[in-house]
Queue: 2 jobs
Job 1
Amino acid sequence: MSSSTSDIQSPAVVQLDIHKVDKKTIEPYILMQRAANYLAGAMIFLQSNFLLERKLKPEDIKPRLLGHWGTCPGINLVYAHCTRLIKEKSLPMILVTGPGHGAPANLANLFLEHSITRYYSDYSYDRQGIERLLKGFSWPSGFPSHTNSEVPGQIHEGGELGYALAVSFGAVLDNPNLIATCVVGDGESETGPTATSWHAYKFIDPAVSGAVLPILHLNGYKISGPTLYGCMSTEELVALFTGYGYQVRIVGDHLDDIQQDMAVSMEWAIGEIQRIQKAAREDGGKNRIYRPRWPMLILRSPKGWTGPKEAHGKAIEGTYHAHQVPLPKAKQDDEELDKLQEWLQAYHPKQLFDERGQPVKAIQDCFPEDDLRMGMRKETHQGTYKPLELPDWKEFVYDKDGEQSSMDLAGAYLAKVIEKNRHSFRIFSPDELTSNKLTRVLDVTNRTMEWDRDLVGQGGQIIEVLSEHICQGLLQGYTLTGRTGLFPSYEAFLGIVTTMVIQYAKFLKLGQETLWKQPLPSLNYIESSTLWRQEHNGFSHQNPAFLNNLMNLKSNMIRIYLPPDGNCMLTTIDHCLKSTGYINLIVSAKNPTPIWLTSAAEVEEHCRAGVSVWPKYSTDGGKDPDVVLVGCGVETTYEVVAAAALLRRDCPELRVRVVNVTDLMVLGMTHSHRLVQNEFDAIFTPDKPIIFNFHGYPSAIKSLAYDRVDNRRMKVHGYNEEGTTTTPFQMLIDNGCSRYDIAIDALHSLSPKDTQEVAIKTRTLISNYRHDIHQHEKYSVATDVDPEDDLLKVFDCHR
Ligand SMILES: Cc1ncc(C[n+]2csc(CCOP(=O)(O)OP(=O)(O)O)c2C)c(N)n1
Ligand SMILES: *[C@@H]1O[C@H](CO)[C@@H](O)[C@H](O)[C@H]1NC(C)=O
Ligand SMILES: CC(=O)N[C@H]1CO[C@H](CO)[C@@H](O)[C@@H]1O
């Protein structure tokens, strides 16, 4: 590896000779842009007279004008120049557009390049197809106003701004030939996720991964005001992005030669990408550039460029008035209708489309061969998914009684997954890998960090960056291009990416309903460092809300598992990494906790069922329990087993059944994992009291069981927003989830008629347990630790 640092040391804008490009070679692409601008503009307004065969009349205008024009001309410029280079150099390139409200631009280009027709046969490549496209846009049953997974070539739900850049980087990881050109809005750039994502190329090893070409689309305005970036001087912009590590080329300072400028700048950028890659790939990487400065473009274009200049004496082009519908009263107002006519006519649709309505030959000739067109790339249609090669989880089962950390066992298994899948599996972690006890994976791989002298070029499969947003974006891009990832996180902070996951779920849902899309791996999360063992970090670290948020999504794509011990964790991870098309959440624990199920067969049986009675800890002899105690989660299940032990010690005549739920979704009525009602009744009984001790907020269980059980028969314990820095057992007491709370509830729930012998003792036992709680509180305050716990010795089968 060369020890030279990168090429540019001080902030300097990249200078190029823009006259070196042969103007003739870009002419067809200027025509292509004219056609795309025409279609994008017309799509927002017209319901008839689609190619302006006569003068526009009010009845040609849609009743509801929806869509965003302002960003479209810039996207069209980028699309055309990408297409030009793809054709010339057979580049494998996809386009990710951050401002997904620019859908009219994407759709226009996808139509021109034949991609819409290819995947939607009802959009023919002629006048009829154009009519359907234009009229159908933002109209019931047509394409919606923002890019989504129905739009060919997309790996990004474009409605919620901020994620395009991270998703692009995820797509090129381990995809050495792919280039993801990413348009980032200047408004979008104000978002936190975008601000941090500029750094993500530091995880790109040019020998094993492809490249992202970021294009900051500086059109100066967002919805109704100027953007931060639009207010910055060239010097400031260049200093900022040089500081991030880029070589910055500014395009579009002069509109009269913007086309040549863009052509030359794109050629330069691709050349730089290839230079960096070549150095890292050839001759065993001995000329690898340390800290290569990847290229980026800052594209200045007037918002709504080529659109109406003004109306009612107010400027439109180049202002935020061009953001959405530039002539919002075109149907009612004569002046606006005239301006619309004048604007659309200026593109001369007759020169763009022939009499059959097909784009003229010069435009059709712009495109590369089919599979290179940006709407047709197999990466974006999940045509590239290969299942992981997985080790046998049973080899990692801990087959003795004793305590193990679920996360540590998982780490051993994941290390094998990494070894077997060097270029198709990655872990994305917000700086919590070792804290979450996955340290064993570091025996077989490193962290990726191309900016670090020791880690550069080491092929690390772990990406650690203290931004949940980047982790999520990378994971999405990686997953949507067919590779499998894992996102372990502190439970409390995974909620940071909630809305990203919700957007992803929308993308997934429509993708699954879009017939030409193929399966893709699931999105996999592990929550660890969960609230019950965040007693040391305190209240801020106690937050199980992410689970509740997932529960609101379409149940057919959500899987939520709470494996009660390390062995169940193994089979659960294995299952998730094999699955396709889901969002999997595993809630786990990193501290050593009892192994309840010691044989692989038991583990498999329990986890396959998702819920089962645990006879070892029950005293109902398999039938007619007086009360059913249910554990779900690691620590809460432990307390349920301990409550059963208390009752067995103090009240042996009581018939207690212990049930564990590992697959949350068995409880609801709508999920494909649901128990049918007589299975439910067989486990939970049709009429006996149920005391549920849940890992997270009780509301999660209550909403699942709402249609299932009479509320009066079920009591749910769970996290109740009580917490502080305290001992682990005190956390349980503070939230009413300790063994004493469960045992007290069990006794309270009994009807004295049915259980005479027990009823006589109830008052005494409950008072004793309350006393025990009080004693415990005193003990922990005095000593800062919990007392030794040997209660489980009551079960002779255990320790
Ligand atoms: C996270 C998020 N916040 C707010 C919005 C609402 N919104 C839609 S477009 C837009 C302005 C976008 O400006 P920019 O990224 O510069 O795009 P362009 O000017 O190219 O249209 C905003 C704030 C959104 N879509 N997503
Ligand atoms: C991690 O990187 C170091 C160099 O910093 C290298 O010596 C080591 O072999 C790598 N470890 C693995 C497991 O790849
Ligand atoms: C500890 C315990 O009772 N485990 C049981 C869990 O459930 C499976 C069947 O699903 C039984 O085989 C185990 O004995």
Job 2
Amino acid sequence: MAFKCLFVFALADHDVKRQEEYVELKDVFAVKVKRRRSAGQQTGGTLLGITLFQCKKKGLKLKEHAIHLNNLSEDHCEIWFKSLKEILSGFKNRPKSLKVFVNPISHKKEAYQIYLDEVAPLFKLADIEADVTITKRKGHALSILKDCSLEEHDGVVCVGGDGSVAEVAHGLLLRAQMDAGRDTDSIFTPVQAALPLGIIPAGSTNVVACSVHGIRRGMTAALHIIMGHHQPVDVCSFSSMGRLLRFGFSAMFGFGGRTLALAERHRWMPPSQRREFALIKTLANLNRDGEDICEHGSWQTRQGLYLNISIMAIPCLCSTAPRGLAPNTRLNNGSMALIAVGNTSRSEFIKHLKRYNSTTNQFGFSFIETQTVKAVKLRPHSQGRCADDVSENEECNTKTMPIISSEGTYPWNIDADLLEVPSELLIRVHPQLLTLFGADMEEAEEAPVKCSCI
Ligand SMILES: *[C@@H]1O[C@H](CO)[C@@H](O)[C@H](O)[C@H]1NC(C)=O
Ligand SMILES: *[C@@H]1O[C@H](CO)[C@@H](O)[C@H](O)[C@H]1NC(C)=O
Ligand SMILES: *[C@@H]1O[C@H](CO)[C@@H](O)[C@H](O)[C@H]1NC(C)=O
Ligand SMILES: *[C@@H]1O[C@H](CO)[C@@H](O)[C@H](O)[C@H]1NC(C)=O
């Protein structure tokens, strides 16, 4: 079959030492007839031969590499071109048509430019049709995914950061449940998304992209999509009061939720500035939440004061956490990591946050508990707590840092998106519910992860 085909040729531009090399067709993603044209000339021109475009791997990076095969015979080139095209169209995971969502306001508003510069030319080269939507507001991609026709597409692509990725992933999964007629109560068994999702990282946080690419680069992401590299990943569902709220990859409660809620209230600040401001301010007013955590299995229960709780279905790699925010989980082994940071002093807590950038023993603190879980129920108890907690009085500035919003909800950071939850939240993991374009970074050779973090 096509996959086993070896393509042997002599490199034309080595005059002296004609050297034999081979390229496997499974690494080739496009073929073009090469002609010499004068500037501005659109058709015709002197035939030079054919050009193969190969996807080359260098560390975590994927790059395109052109191989020119010189031949002046129209007949030969035509035969080669046609046969190669036929072989290339036989690779079954490679998409021919994509639905693309671009979030034009993510990070420094560079998403559309990244798409135009680094991605669109590669899609065109690979003869992939892209139906592009530049989203106008939050929720726009979700509303399109709920009722657009997906049949003609082989994949969905999101150009943006974690918030945009989460919205598109949620949209794809919600759509799959609607198509399957699933009632999304809190105990339903979800069906898999119909199409794989490709992520072009262009946000201020890109932990999902980095978990499947290991690197924040448009070209690498585009080539994973073009080559049809499939990576199934586990997904969480978040339900409250018996109803599904959304699908996602990670959740943070306590410090992580509050920091985001505070940053959201300062939307007028530039993104990096407001994140830093929120982080420092939340640290200064470090709050202890009382909560019950129930873990699945035979539902073990914990009750106590916690500073920060993370529940993550994927490792969430980023530069400040080279092994991930949740190094103790895998992309698709059917479990989530529960990391609960108990009460401690501010300085110990800061020490813990800094330890994320180490590669060993990130959670080696007596106040941190880690568990591998299938489901978690989290029930916060924080009303009126500050007044009772005499020792913490000076840290409890409820005027500047409301613990709960005026609506009586609790702030959760779900994939960098603020979700206000009124009561107990049930988080369940669903093994391999979504397929992403990418690879398992655990199996990749060690290389520094270059992605921005939460
Ligand atoms: C705590 O909060 C920080 C900052 O929001 C976040 O990066 C981290 O993953 C959270 N989780 C734990 C368990 O500390
Ligand atoms: C998934 O992988 C993590 C890390 O290796 C491990 O601790 C956990 O037990 C695994 N989960 C399952 C269900 O095998
Ligand atoms: C929480 O930790 C702080 C700092 O170590 C301590 O002062 C406080 O008493 C603790 N609160 C409880 C209820 O254990
Ligand atoms: C952790 O961060 C510090 C300061 O930014 C840096 O010097 C150190 O090399 C980092 N360690 C790792 C393992 O990345």
